Amino acid sequence: MPFYRTQHSPLAPPPAIRQLTQLGIRPQVAIGVESYLAVPQLVAGGSRVALMQRRLAAQFTGRSGLRVCPCPGQPEPIIEALWWHEDLDADPAHAWLRKALAALGAEL
Length: 108
Known about the structure:
Layout: H1 15-22, H2 39-43, H3 54-58, H4 92-107
């Protein structure tokens, strides 16, 4: 499961864990990662399962015996955030990057 941090409590479970628990599923988190891109390599060839975005998971379907199964329940949306220091507000390259990422996010 990718690293999850909340402002309210560092001990609060990630939304996916909370939702699965409400469905009566008690997940055992064995590995924590910084990025969803690492997840397929960590579950391939073993008995682990993972929750990740459908579009990303579909890119790995069929590789190393991985398959995509429907998620139980209706998961909360994943919120992506971009953080930067205020010193970079006026930086033209950084402003371009923020604008490009916002446009990409709007397309998805």
